[in-house]
Structure prediction request, 188 residues.
Amino acid sequence: MAELMKFPTIISLAWKSQKAQKWDTKTKTSGSGKVRTMTNWKYPQYTISTEFEVLTPAQYKELMGFYSKTKGGTVPFLWLDPEDNAETGIQLGTGSMGSWQAVRKFGDFLEPVYHVENLTLYANGSPIRAVSDKGVIKLAAGQTVEPNAVITADYTYYWLVRFSGDMTAEYIFTNVYKSKSFKLVSTR
Prediction:
């Protein structure tokens, strides 16, 4: 599989974002009025709606070029969400497990993340050397931990998304652009 592209780092004066969560829930109502619901999904799908308030001409070209490189919604890419992008001190398990899945935590709900950077792994609060491959965290070669050690981690994570819909930008003032709202849909 080819290396995933990362959404360009565009620092703008203002950023708006909202997330919608979808579970593809099926509901059936019997003749007596009893309701039965179910979903086959283990994790939700997110739709992120966002826009850039201010873009320089170079940022405008970078954004439109990236949209073209991903062929709209065809090619998935990595998105570093400005609000939801890191876990600090998250407990992953014990040393006896040997490898740990990186996760994102919303309240008490955990879901796996597969693209992490800036990883620091801890055994009983002490940093240890580790590597990550597709979100699976393992001890670095030669590193050992006690089987009952509590394993925690700090890391930055990316969302795997694709564009949903068109990308529109407008020229609002001399050398100032703005994007219209665009949507990103999480993928697995």
Notes: The CA atoms of residues 21 and 46 lie 5 Å apart. The helical segments are 57-69. The mean pLDDT is 93.
